[in-house]
């Protein structure tokens, strides 16, 4: 009865939408109280200014809390799902942890406006949460293990409203088996959610850590084409030839390409210096790195993006 007689809900929807945008969209005046470090997340701090998470004001970053650097009690996790991660100086132990939503100086006000606005009524929750989750990009960086718990904790309405995700793929030569398992689990969750119409992603932004060796960089490296990647992926899967596929690592891309129906796919390289390749695995990574924004981007985009019209 309150929803019917509420003066706010009697306003035209266009006016309510303007109010929601004012409360939920990034502020034009950034907050001045924030931390610069996202490596050691403070349990009572919400706002961070960091180059890996503030490239777009319409971005909300999700990060795993490292229990080794930031010990937390379970009481501070509230209703968020917990999961185990490897931690410690040599990643030799596993501990339970959860994720955090990191706000930029432009979105610091969401720490107060979201819990104040969404619980007011079911209709306000429906309208405001739909706008919130459709508008913002949720960036996970390398915290791939946080994606499934984060999405699982959302209501079906909020989860189905998400349109934009950003992921980062770690440097291929340094990936461990638990990294592969986390990536595979994430891709399976997203593909299954799309298949059950629980999510309708519009765009996926993928950043790939790429290695550029020495002073010459990629000048002497022949980039791989989309056709080359297609052939290499098939060779790795079939094991054609003696020893072929041992140094090729494209299974993760095949798992990602199970996510279909996107309207936009963006791939960019996060370039880091690396030593000159001394093994077939490193040589493949360098050649792959030189092709991330060219042949590789063309290959995955052709598989994952559905033409409209």
Structural commentary:
With about 300 residues, the protein is α/β, with parallel strands linked by helices. The protein has a domain at about 20-160. The chain contains eleven helices and eight strands. The protein has helices spanning about 1-5, 15-25, 110-115, 120-135, 145-155, 155-160, 175-195, 225-240, 250-255, 280-290, 290-305; strands at about 60-65, 85, 95, 100, 135-140, 165-170, 205-215, 265-275. A hairpin with a 5-residue loop joins strand 2 (about 85) and strand 3 (about 95). Helix 2 (about 15-25) crosses helix 4. The protein starts with a helix and ends in a 5-residue tail after the last helix. The relative contact order is 0.11. The model is unreliable at about 35-45 (pLDDT under 50).
Which percent range fits the helix content? 25-40%
The unreliable regions are 36-45
Give a quick account of the main beta sheet: strands, pairing sense, barrel closure: 6 strands, mixed
Strand order across the largest sheet: 4-1-5-6-7-8
Distance between the termini: 44 Å
Provide the gyration radius in Å: 22 Å
Overall 3D shape: globular
Total helical elements? 11
- Integer average pLDDT: 86
Q: How many β-strand stretches? A: 8
Elements, N to C (H/E): HHEEEEHHEHHEHEHHEHH
Class by helix and strand content?
alpha/beta
Beta-strand percentage? 15-25%
